[in-house]
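[User]
Um, tokens okay?
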Amino acid sequence: MQRTLRGGRGVFFAAAIRSPRDVGTLLPSGPELAARLAAVVSGAGRNGRPPVVVELGAGAGAVTGAIVRAAAQDAVVIAIEKDPELAQRLRSRALGVRVVTADAATLPAILADHGVDRADVIVSVLPWTLFGAQQQREFLTIFAAALASDGVFTAASYSWAYWTPAARRFRHELGRVFSEVLPTRTLWRHLPPAMTYVCRHPKVAGEDINADPSR
């Protein structure tokens, strides 16, 4: 364990202690959850141009490696991480991705800086259940607007919090900004147990994004 903590997990653990509300967990995503999140990357952007894949809350790269393996060879992969030490750790791994140290809320500006107007896939490892109602709404509105009309947004969620008010609010907000929201089965062997949401058809063109999805 001591040897492990000197590597990526140690950097991640230190970041979790520094900023628990930004990191959300003491352990990085495991291989099974990483593969689940990256599954939507395969085949993205089949319209004659390199696909653009964005990872939000990349940490030290637990999910990034799975994204790189699943993405097309010419894909543009942008990994966004707010914590400078985690971002530097990810850069040192030389995975061939564009690592940006920034808040995920600045995604439109980040895409513009890379000469891109929309992402084909957005993979979120952000701690949604630790966000307040306003922050959940603002983030999801920004991300939906940054996604191509045929793009995919996927987010990790920890199953222990499934019935908490914050988790229920997050599911409601997903339905507000996406026409299709598909939950996946829980990965019980993951620590902590986790599942994902796969969301398509962002409501940003001709639909009322402020409408109540339950109506």
About this structure: The radius of gyration is 16 Å. Strands lie at 52-56, 76-81, 98-101, 119-124, 147-158, 178-183, 194-202. Residues 133-145 form the longest helix (13 residues).
